[in-house]
Amino acid sequence: MDSWNQTKFDQFILTGLTNDQVLRVFLFVVFLIIYIFSFMSNFGMILLIKMHHNLQTPMYFFLGNLSFVDMCYSSTITPKMLSGFLMEQNSISFVECVMQMSLFAMFATSECFLVTAMAYDRYVAICRPLFYHKLMDSATCWWMVTGAYLSSLLASVSHTVTIFNFPLCGTNKINHFYCDIPPLLKLTCVNSSLRKTVVFSLSLVMGIISFFVILMSYVSIISSILDIKSTEGRSKAFSTCGSHLTVVILFYGSVFCIYFRPSIGLDLESIDKFFSIFYTVASPLLNPLIYSFKNVEVKRAMINAYVQKRKVSSE
Asked: pTM of the predicted model, to two decimals?
């Protein structure tokens, strides 16, 4: 088997989303606006958490890291996609492709681990409230986040080495707007069953284990909430999980539609691009908005920050 350093391709051609010049200009404007708002929203969420004492809790510590990861993996994909809209032929060098896929895999895996840590945090808060401060102290939170980043780095390296260790043959056109695992595997000289095995195995590392940890956490959470007798108490408990559960559904729903959807004769490549846009471009924007509109403490902190700014400007 050829080494991935000995591939005959010096660069790849990204086919992108469309060949229509007018539509490409329109999409450039749309995605540029989304990217700017996404970056600003996540950066603002990080600042809000750092500035307000009421948000110095494990849940918001994880949320701050989630916003950081969203900024990073959106920035790994979107700038190249935007430049591709303005170029007649959107090429990416072999090294750039390796780096893009590696970084994206690392940040996407980090997101999986972080939302898992947030699910565990909600499990402890609702199911074991008397032990919350002991189980979720500062040192534990830092270890969980550090473990998420290190595990993601290891997963990213293994993904990249595995995929680019396959010999590449045929065309150098990647039918996507970035270097993702499934379209890259289609360029390799291996049979389709092996490709599916590789995709499933890598996706298993990235998401399935984390998903089942989240699922079991919410089974326990829902069971504990249903045991609460007062309607107000159940409503309050559900509200603390609503934002996180929405983020989990959006992220894992789009990922599963790409890596685990059945081959049923549809235009699967277009479907993959649609869901890829959702979790690489839209999801990083939606996450801070979801926590802003559905979380009472975040809304209160935003109002306080606005009031303080008005006071300073009026003095």
From this structure: 0.85
pLDDT of 176 reads 87
Report the share of the chain in percent with pLDDT over 90.
Answer: 26
**What per-residue confidence (pLDDT) applies to 33?**
94
* 7 torsion bin: left (phi>0), alpha (psi -120 to 50), beta (else): beta
Of the two residues 237 and 155, the one the predictor is more confident about is 155
Does position 7 have pLDDT exceeding 60, yes or no? no
What gap in Å lies between CA 131 and CA 123, rounded to an integer?
Answer: 11
Q: Cα separation of 102 and 106, whole Å?
A: 6
108 neighbors 101 (Cβ within 8 angstroms): no
Residue 1 scores a pLDDT above 50 = no
Q: pLDDT tens for residues 282-298?
A: 888 888 888 776 666 67
- Tell me, letter by letter, the H, E, C secondary structure of the chain: CCCHHHCCCCEEEECCCCCCHHHHHHHHHHHHHHHHHHHHHHHHHHHHHHHCHHHCCHHHHHHHHHHHHHHHHHHHHHHHHHHHHCCCCCEEEHHHHHHHHHHHHHHHHHHHHHHHHHHHHHHHHHHCHHHHHHHCCHHHHHHHHHHHHHHHHHHHHHHHHHHHCCCECCCCEECCCCCCHHHHHCCECCCHHHHHHHHHHHHHHHHHHHHHHHHHHHHHHHHHHHCCCCHHHHHHHHHHHHHHHHHHHHHHHHHHHHHCCCCCCCCHHHHHHHHHHHHHHHHHHHHHHHHHHHCHHHHHHHHHHHHHHHHHHHC
The domains of the chain, with CATH numbers, are 4-314 (1.20.1070.10)
153, 72 Cβ separation under 8 angstroms? no
